[in-house]
Fold these 4 entries.
Entry 1:
Amino acid sequence: MDSEDTKAATSEAPASEPALEAASVVKPKTVEAGRPPAKKAAKKAAPAPAVKKKKPAKAKPVAKAESVPTAKAASPAPAVKKVKKTKTKPAPQTNAEKTVKAEPKKAKLAKAKPEKVKLEAVKSEKVRPKNAKPAKVKPAKTKPVPSQTAEILDSQVAFEGPLFRVLRDHIIEPGGRESYRDVIRHNGSVVILATNPGKRKKDPWVVIERQYRHAAGQFLWELPAGKLDGGEQPIDGAKRELAEETGYSAKKWSPLVEYYASPGFLGESMKVFLAEGLIAGDAHPEEDEHIDFRLVKLSELLEMVDKGKIIDGKTLTSILLYARQLGLKRRK
């Protein structure tokens, strides 16, 4: 019976635990009588539960002999991860660096453009021949400018008096038209805007006269004025007329404006002078002149203009122009 039990024990052991035969180094010496061999084998296989703990530091005892080659084969895995890390470097940083480095290059290129233009300009200058003649510019064909004055074919004196004369002229006008014109010829006249400073700089005192005019059929408010003698200078005639009609002289004289009162038939040019800083004197008008004069503020004269009390052309022209130069506005 003992021998059959031992045979059964030896035959059952390799069938139930095949891995233990390879792992266990100690061979069974003897089998005690009365004990089943399978239980002994179970007791010898007690270290197997230690493998189930799965501690990371310890390997299974079964794989001690065979774990060496498998561990060597699995070792390259971490190396593959390192390669992936090198490939996946932060791309945005490199792109930003590239753009930052590329910007100064663009700036350098932008600075270099004018230099290229300068070189091209220098080259173009060098290409020009030294003895090159400038291109001839053909003058544009212009129409003949007509004469600015009329051609007088014939002139006859129709009337002559102490102040003016009337001429009948046969003329060809600048436009080529032939006609007859009756013209009053006059030596010219001067007008004096005599002023004295008032409390306000923009509102000085102005000398104004009142006299009867037969041509107008009424008394008119006017500035001092008179005709020029033959060959007399306008400024001398202005000083003479102011002294004769009012007795005033002035410290400062300056031209204000020149105009033609009625150029359709009257050839009289009227030159207006501004007289400032008046000095009183004795008036000595001509025998046929009856003049009443006074000093009136410029603002009051503007009111007289607005009310229609001043209708003389030379007075309207001079007062309105002088008030505009001073910046004095008319009252509404």
Entry 2:
Amino acid sequence: MTQEVKKRHRGVYLLPNALTTGAMFAGFFSIISGINGHYSAAVIAVIVAGFLDGLDGRVARLTNTQSEFGVQYDSLSDLISFGLAPSLLAFNWSLASMSEMGPFAGKLGWLAAFLFAACAALRLARFNTQVAVADKGYFQGLASPAAAGTLVATIWFFVSKDVPGDNEFVRWVIWFETIALGLLMFSRVRYFSGKTWPKGDRVPLITMLLVVLIVVLLALDTPTVLMAIGLIYVVTGLVMTIVQRQQHRSRRSMRKAAPGEAPGEDPPVAAGDRTAEESSEERGA
């Protein structure tokens, strides 16, 4: 019996890890394309990597083929596809041109790209250490695929409008966005993960209408719509976190003011409202 168990753990599950390999290949292809100046292809490759990355996890859960190997392999793939690939694309397309303004500005350019990649690595490491106790409904910090998608979609938007990356305004936009998205990845801002949705086999009919509208808009102007979706998602996490923390402070103040309440005692908080600072057992991934 013990030998049979050991034999089972020697191999790996093929399907989810093959999808992870495909995502890593897309990320590596994006790096090569960006170096060669094929920026649109590099952007599309990152988007394909994001699709495959979302697919491998769902396939693993649906087929009950989750494993510790898959978790670690997926994180390494994510670092390439959503850490290195988008940061190098931003540098090659725009941030490298900051050296034209002087040595100090040139350092600001490549350091911004490094910060994005480093924050992606830190976020993935934190996620792996918290995966067992994470709140599946929310991410703690902006997910690396979302950060990468937002950054490359912004680049694709400017490329599609024939705006060069060395434009003085554009290079500062990309510099600021690269830093902001990198810091949000390692922040404690809460973002809806979508892992627990839908909760059943059926969804409201209005959901299908929204899907149709998104498809139509993507067909009209894919770069613009993808950038808008990414920026909206980034902002919604910030708004949701601010609102939840204000609600928590308001409940705590009300409980302190209530008669018979012990000074400094916190009110009970719903599981979905807790942040990483407020509960060590319900931290967002």
Entry 3:
Amino acid sequence: MGRRKSRSLSDHPPKLKARLGYTGRYGLLSSARSARQEAHLRTYRLLKRASRAARVVFQAARGLARRHHPLLVHLIPMRRCNLACGYCNEYDAVSKPVPLEAMLERVDLLAGLGTAMITVSGGEPLMHPELEAMVARMRERGIVASLITNGYLLSPDRIGALNAAGLDYLQISIDNLEPDEISMKSLRLLEPKLRWLAEHAEFGVNINSVVGAGIKTPEDALVIARRARALGFTSSIGILHDGKGQLRRLGEREMAVYEELKRLGSRGDARVNAIFQDNLARGKPNEWSCRAGSRYLYVDEDGLVSYCSQWRGVPGVPLRDYTREAIRREYATSKPCAPYCTINCVQRVGLFDNWRSPQTLRAVMKRQAPAAPPTAAAEPPETQLLAR
């Protein structure tokens, strides 16, 4: 698909924005809307949702028809994060943003490989001052654009800027009701951000509630999932992995919460990989073909292609040098960590190909101890798993 400019309310004529009750630079909602404006706004959002769904369906159909192109890429514009969650090994406190020119080049290289969807994550991607320009480039290149954030830096203006850039999806993981020493991603602190998203966002919003390692009160996930649905968002369940991206079996309390979340009928992509999730929750392995390095890529802040966030630096090939031949080879290469992997996005991508093309090669994967960054003491040594 060629370059295409995305449209948000900020691009529309003033008369249409007035009919919808929008004002301001990024088309933010005015404080008082008439019943007619509310109706127009609902219609507008339904049309946006339909357009977004049509593009996703197109990319899914293309993914079934053609095997050797990336379906999902995690792209890292900076490693730095404004939080220091106790279970996370994907951040530091010192890294600078990757220059925009380099990020746009990486988006173009991924488009050249036929990438269907890019998820920008980190670190904390909202700390990058030019994130919206990356999102706009993805949409220009026909790529579905999504974002994973802790939500702390969201504001009405920032949401409006993401609307204008053409963002398709945003996900926030919320770990607890009240902040603790493990995680500051609490429902109480993020509630104002969620309300702003409900009122202003033109993109889809998913709230991921988690159970597993490090979460003190697993029952919090039930409250978080109910709140997400009350606000009109989709919700999903995440099972936290250990420091190596592998399974920690759920305890009795956690298992009860997990089952209740399923009974609530949690909407969103959790349904897609329910069998995987059930096996992981019970400590059982999954039989599947991990297509990391082919259908799924993890491109870090240095522009290196890795299998996933837990195997950073493996294979560690610069994106500029990553070829379609490499994609074909990794498509046929099994990964020894797959049976107990909890990386949901890689598992979901695997569903496109688990029924076909048995893997005949086997990856050799070794971890190497990295040199610790100068002020990375916030990361416990046992979670520093970069394999550079």
Entry 4:
Amino acid sequence: MTRFSKIRRACLIILQLALARSSLSETGPRPSRSPTPVYTFHIVHSFPHDSSAFTQGLAWRDGFLYEGTGLKGASSLRKVRLETGEVVRRSDLAPDLFGEGITFYGNEILQLTWLSERGFVYDAEDFRLLRQFSYRGEGWGLATDGRSSEIFMSDGTAEIRVLDGGTLTEKRRLTVRDGAKAIDQLNELEYVEGEIFANVWQSDRIARISPKTGQVLGWIDLTGLLSPLYRRDGGAVLNGIAYDPVHKRLFVTGKLWPTVFEIRLLSAGRSQKPAKAGQRGEPHQVLVRSSVSTPVESRADRPPK
């Protein structure tokens, strides 16, 4: 064997060993990603809620809840007294419109519609309609941090649109992922202490999302929040998040639910014990059927969201 042949053979052996090592590295066990934190809840207070309200958006300001409701012929913008559920101000949308999410922007309230590609801007004080705006596709949820000029908008996909608050035009989009998995069906939004909280349609979970990267930072599992004694309409899913930044209070509700809950988040494994009847924090034990029908929308024959 010549010297050249020996060198060539040695090089081939080294290459084969390197390839084998690479193959073992690729197929061998990889360090797993830490699981996304999961939070449960403790009910601090429960408050009455209009069980005919098909809640699509919820917000808090100066001691009152503000609510956007849906369904054609029943869509509205409302100012609600938290303690009693009394609607103290209301503006109804045209009967052909399906109202969606709301948010504050300065002294204005923005409201989306589902399929009409139209949004409305109201004076926050008297609900006077100031102007309209348009967008492409579906409108689901809205949120803002109350400080910057950006507004976050969901459309039922895994993307959150970032709008310029002054022009209401789209600046960019975030794709929401839990690890590598895209999370779609993002519905009502709320900005809470540097994170976007998002209802996931037809689930009992809220995603805690980074507004910078779209990464899911945690999950809030609200399974069992509404009493099983409440016979839920098929469309009566968890939807509606509001935050009181002054007193650090978090409120949640659902479409056609009889209750708004103030909750405190707990790490997984620390969920509350069932409250005894009459104790503070007990959900309203009521048996309610909404008188509002939930018709099927024309687009793709989907149930109303």
